[in-house]
Amino acid sequence: MGRRRSQRVAALVLAALLATAATAGVAACSSGSGGGQTSQTPAKRFVAILGHQPSGLAKAVAARGTLVVGEDPEFAPQSSVDSTGAWSGFDVDVAREVGAVLGLKVEFRQLDWARVPAALAADRYDVAISSMATVPKPPGRLAFAAPYAYSTAQVAVRQGSAAITTLGEIRGKSIGVSASTTFQQFLAAAGGVGVALYPSDADALPDVANGSLAGAMTADTTATVEQAAGAQIAATGAGFFYQPQAFAARRGEADFVAVLDGALKTMRRNGTLSALSRKWYHGLDVSARPAASVPLFSRALAMLKAGTYPLQ
Question: What CATH architecture applies to the domain 150-242+295-306?
Answer without folding.
Answer: 3-Layer(aba) Sandwich (3.40)
